[in-house]
Design brief:
Shape: globular
Largest sheet: 5 strands, antiparallel
Distance between the termini: 35 Å
Radius of gyration: 23 Å
Number of helices: 1
């Protein structure tokens, strides 16, 4: 399991609450951060990233429903694309790494006229 970046917020009582940063996304030129409480797979929060004049980043709740919907839809699309890539990675038919035949033409579509690739496909130094 990969270590996720964490951020700490204070609630209205001044108590610290730790969140994990799931992702950053840019929508219409504005950056947003997606955070969730550790061990909570059901709920995530979208916050707008605002940068002050001194370069300090502040995470701000989104009050506008249209803005929130736009960012949520963009994030859902991003997750769907990542799922599609994961499905491609899991598809054994796309790349057969256990090809035992002695076909030396596996790298025919690599242009090695300049000698930058060896026959086994490794970059020559």
């Amino acid at each position: 399991m990969e270590d996720l970046e964490t951020v700490v917020f204070r609630d209205e009582n001044g108590d610290e609450i730790e969140f994990q940063v799931l992702d950053y996304i840019e929508v219409d030129g504005q950056e947003y951060v997606i955070v969730a409480m550790p061990d909570d797979d059901d709920e995530a929060f979208i916050l707008r990233v605002e940068t002050g004049e001194d370069g300090t980043e502040t995470y701000v709740t989104i009050e506008d429903d249209d803005e929130w919907d736009t960012v949520a839809e963009a994030y859902e699309e991003l997750l769907e694309q990542e799922d599609e890539w994961d499905d491609l990675d899991d598809d054994d038919d796309l790349l057969d790494l256990d090809d035992d035949d002695d076909d030396d033409d596996d790298f025919d579509d690599v242009d090695d006229e300049d000698g930058s690739f060896s026959e086994d496909g490794r970059r020559r130094e």
